[in-house]
Amino acid sequence: MFGIKHIKFDSMTYVLHFKNGNIQKEGRGLSFFYFAPNSSIVAIPMASNDLPFIFSETTNDYQTVNIQGQISYKISKPKELSDVLDFTVTDYGQYKKNDIEKLNQRIINEAQTATSSYIHGIKLKDAIRSAKAIEERIINGLKAAPAIGMLGIEILGANVLGISATPEMARALETDTREKLQQEADQAIYERRNFAVEQERRIKESELNTEIAVEEKQKQIAEKKMESDVQKAENDRKLREMQLAADIAVEDQRKLLIKQKTENDRKEAETQGFVIETTLKPYKDIDWKTLTALNNNPDPKFSIALAFRQLAENADKIGNLNVSPELLESLLNEKK
Length: 336
Fold this sequence. Notes:
Elements: E1 4-8, E2 13-19, E3 22-28, E4 31-35, E5 39-45, E6 49-58, E7 64-75, H1 78-84, E8 88-89, H2 99-119, H3 124-128, H4 131-144, H5 146-150, E9 153-165, H6 167-280, H7 288-295, H8 300-313, H9 325-335
Antiparallel strand pairs: 1-4, 2-3, 2-5, 5-8, 6-7, 7-9
Helix pairs in contact: 2-4
């Protein structure tokens, strides 16, 4: 019959069948017949979409950065979306208008609006390293945007795949980074050498401290030895003093002994002299001749000697004295 059509949709498509301006059927994955002249069919895809984006922004230091990524979303309220955008399909299931592009562009615009205010407030180096922060800004901005809420979509996530500067600035940053890395390497070499020098200094200081400690010990040993020598010398001196004192005491005793002995000998001599003097005193006034006679010496030579003595005493009275040779010879022979 003319004007009667059949159409079928998959399960990921939400279908609205309008007849004379009123909804006759709605739901996912519908299949039905309809009268084309008074019918209008809206088909809204319910599957999640990954929307790539790339846009340029200017940083706080007037440098351009390119931000590349993608936004994942799905249509959660198809009827609200159908009130805003036209997803009407033909009898063959093709969209009459390409409003899906409008939807994507609106999402990208909101994402760029949420990102631009953040990028404008930071410098180029910070912007290049702020992927996570930009992702959070995009997600929060899209969820809070009234225009996104009117579209009836749900933001599943956002991923920033790359943030890059212009080629000239990229080369400049590479040069600057290379120089800084070289400076860090030089600093690391300097610190390593400085550490080695410091360790060498500590080793030398430890060796010097050890030598000082050894010298101090040797000094203490020398002082102890000197103290021992001084003490030994002091002890030797005291021993010598004691020995000298003992010798002096002995000598004093000997002196006293000699003095006493001398005194005793003197007294003994005086006693002996007194005895002799007393003994000889009766003979003091006796003539020697009488004493000689009292001696009564029987030796004839003694008598001859006395005779010669008498002759000598009276030599002035004697004129001539004849002594026979035989007498002299006998005297000499007796002497021999």
